[in-house]
Amino acid sequence: MKPDFELADVINHTKPYISQQLGNSARTLFALSRCRTAELGGHIDKCSDIACSYVGISYNSCRNRHCPKCQQIQKEVWLMAMQHRTLPVSYFHVVFTIPHELNSLCLLYPKQMYDTLFKVAWATLKGFAANEQYAIKMGMTAVLHTWGQNLSLHPHIHCIVPAGGMDYNGKWKKLKGNKANGRKGFLFPMDALKKVYKAKFMAALRKLSKNGRIPKQDSRFLNELFNKEWVIYAKRPFAGAKQVIEYLGRYTHKVAISNHRLKIVNENHTSFNYKDYKDGAKQKLMLLTNEEFIRRFSQHILPDGFTKIRHFGLHSGASTGIMDKLCLQLTHKIRPKFSRAAALIIAKEKSSYNPKICPCCGKNTIQTLLTWQTGKPPPRQLNFKLLTKNHHP
Fold first, then answer.
1. DSSP summary character for residue 167
2. Separation between Cα atoms, residue 297 and residue 272, nearest integer Å
């Protein structure tokens, strides 16, 4: 169902503010406002069935990763790729966060800070796995999220981690997990994991400052930061890879807010629903000025070329051969090769997307009569004979 309001509506109400105040984010925001409009070009289609003779205009998508309208197909392809990348074992869902005191550095130096978040999270898990108590090579897939429900800045990464790894003999070694509060906990002791993660991140922060990649930080600020409790959250293990991949799929191609959450958009204000986790996850309505709404959304626009989904260890592309052998060990079957082209076809079918299907009669009879390029308006008048002529496939 098409939403009543779109992010593009808010952007169109705030173009002067965006141009004057939001710098590099303006290019992305204006791209989102043009998505599926005549400004990006499009094509005119006609049903070749004589009894139908449907004619319609379709506009091109912006394909920007921050667009709430352009991610569904790519998400489905990613899910299929991940089902191939992972093993038929139990997986944990782990979340690494950083204190809100670092938000200002994340806004000013997003690439440096978010790169550090990925690297330190992996270094922490990899270090524990290499300990002689476990002695395994493990894997991790991580997805960056930067927002909370009210669009505030809340940088964290969602990770999936297999419940085990490969030992030094190339065999799969399952880890049962540690006991926590009388039940099965994460692979490694959580209290120790938090301490090591915090220490590694603080060391990385000091190194960034020393190398001039971020400004020098006040020693008092760093000491206060070190004395805080840093949060790592680990859910109980999923039964298999499919469940955890589907769960992680909620985060991979999400943007800061979906169009369906927007309830009112007018010339001055925007309201949207959100879950207030401090009040029992109750659904509430937030009202912001359009400028404040766009300012909050722009905080979550990532730097050009920044990779928000990363694979480490056994999950990395360099370990494809090793994963094939482990899969054969676990299932006694040869893992089939992954084809992105085939996955794309399946994803389009799952999303009910078929440009050849007529939206009026439902037959496979749509033909493109005319296309026009970006920056040009659609033709005001079309050749009548062109539209009424029956085109056979």
1. -
2. 13
Residue 143's beta-bridge partner residues? 158, 309
CA–CA gap between residue 304 and residue 200 (Å, rounded): 27
List the structure tokens of 46.
Answer: 């006609």
The dihedral through the CA atoms of 11, 14, 19, 23 has a sign that is negative
Q: What is the pLDDT of residues 64-106, one digit of tens each?
A: 999 988 877 888 888 888 888 888 888 888 999 999 999 999 9
Coil/strand/helix, residue 34: coil
315, 245 Cβ separation under 8 angstroms: no
Q: Give the contacts of 294 (CB within 8 A, at least 6 positions apart).
A: 10, 11, 14, 17, 18, 22, 29
HEC string of 236-263 equals CCECCHHHHHHHHHHHHCCCCCCHHHEE
How buried is residue 334: exposed, middle or buried, by Cβ count under 10 Å (0-12/13-18/19+)? exposed
Q: What's residue 113's pLDDT?
A: 97
Q: What is the pTM of this model?
A: 0.87
> Do residues 136 and 313 touch, judged by C-beta distance below 8 A?
no
Q: Rounded CA gap, 84 and 72, in Å?
A: 19
